[in-house]
Design brief:
Layout: E1 3-7, H1 11-22, E2 26-31, E3 41-44, H2 50-56, E4 62-65, H3 74-92, E5 95-101, H4 123-140, E6 145-151, E7 153-155, H5 162-171, E8 176-178, E9 187-190, H6 191-202, E10 211-213, E11 218-219, H7 222-233, E12 240-242, H8 245-252, H9 256-259, H10 266-269, H11 277-283, H12 290-300
Helix pairs in contact: 1-6, 2-3, 3-4, 5-7, 7-12
Length: 306
């Protein structure tokens, strides 16, 4: 039984690890702290150390890139991390499976499909686009076997999207202020659906060398999504309004993460929707029903629902 290497123990990495464990796989989770879900072998390591990671990955079947550097450090932390995982995959022969997002497309005026060009002109989008370009070039040159799965804002236990962060206020009956336009249509991705897609493409040679979109849990505006959550939780719908721009700018003076948000504000200020039809048709996957996604998220946020 070949080893499966999962880099990162956030909601996606942990979800991948749990899915692999249910199949009886030998799973190693790599984090700086040595954390990870129960049942895996936990290794404390800086995954940007290409020599150490390559040694660990010897004989591995797959390397799952589920790392998540601090948001304000993407441009400095992602390149060495991605390069180390690419080197480890090339040396070991493991399939490199990359958990990614929609940043690389940049602002578009259409539904996002996996064949859209990676045209982002801002640093975070360019970093994510370059990671896939490098992996794809190595794949096409025969040096590695690589595949990428892209999702939108996550919803689910452990997720930290702007929707999940609003659930405690919703449950407390407090007014909610959201980033961007509360009524802009938006795609949401369930963390477990993202993890399931990563595991699926790792074992499908016909999926390699391509990007895939995880099944979309729902296309709902923030206002609609919060109303749906209130219905699932059995609480009154609360007032939802946009956070004033001046408050965001003021907070950015003191918070480096918030200071990064203007570049990606288009994701919440306009329609931000992706197409998952190829994943459903060719991989046979489907999204978890939206009410169940919300129920799991609300339970994690403290809702007393079954």
């Amino acid at each position: 039984m070949a080893t499966q290497i999962v880099v990162g123990a956030g909601p996606i990495g942990s979800g991948v690890a749990r899915a692999l464990l249910t199949r009886g796989e030998d799973v190693v989770v790599v984090t700086r702290s040595g954390g990870g879900p129960e049942g895996v072998r936990k290794v404390a390591m800086d995954a940007a150390d290409a020599v150490a990671l390559t040694k660990l990955a010897a004989g591995a079947a797959a390397i799952y890139n589920c790392a998540n550097p601090p948001y304000n450090r993407w441009t400095t932390d992602w390149p060495p991390l991605a390069a180390a995982m690419l080197a480890a995959a090339a040396d070991s022969g493991a399939v490199l499976v990359i958990a990614s997002n929609l940043y690389g497309y940049g602002p578009v005026d259409t539904v996002m499909t996996p064949d859209l060009p990676l045209a982002a002109q801002y640093p975070k989008g360019q970093v994510r686009a370059d990671m896939w370009r490098d992996a794809l070039a190595a794949h096409q040159a025969g040096r590695v076997r690589a595949v990428e799965v892209r999702g939108s804002d996550y919803v689910g236990p452990g997720a930290e999207s702007h929707l999940d962060r609003a659930f405690p206020a919703l449950l407390a009956g407090k007014k909610i202020r959201v980033l961007g336009d509360p009524d802009a249509q938006h795609s949401w991705t369930h963390t477990e659906d993202m993890a399931a897609t990563l595991v699926a493409v790792a074992g499908r040679s016909d999926a390699w060398g391509q990007p895939w979109h995880a099944p979309c849990a729902a296309v709902r505006s923030q206002r609609e999504a919060l109303a749906d959550a209130a219905e699932v939780a059995g609480v009154p719908t609360t007032r939802v309004s946009a956070l004033p721009g001046w408050q965001l700018r003021l907070a950015g003076l003191f918070n480096p993460v918030i200071r990064e948000l203007p570049d990606v504000s288009y994701q919440v200020e306009r329609t931000f929707v992706y197409d998952d039809s190829r994943t459903i048709a060719e991989l046979g996957l489907a999204a978890t029903p939206w009410p169940e996604v919300l129920r799991r998220s609300l339970v994690a946020a403290g809702a007393g629902i079954g």
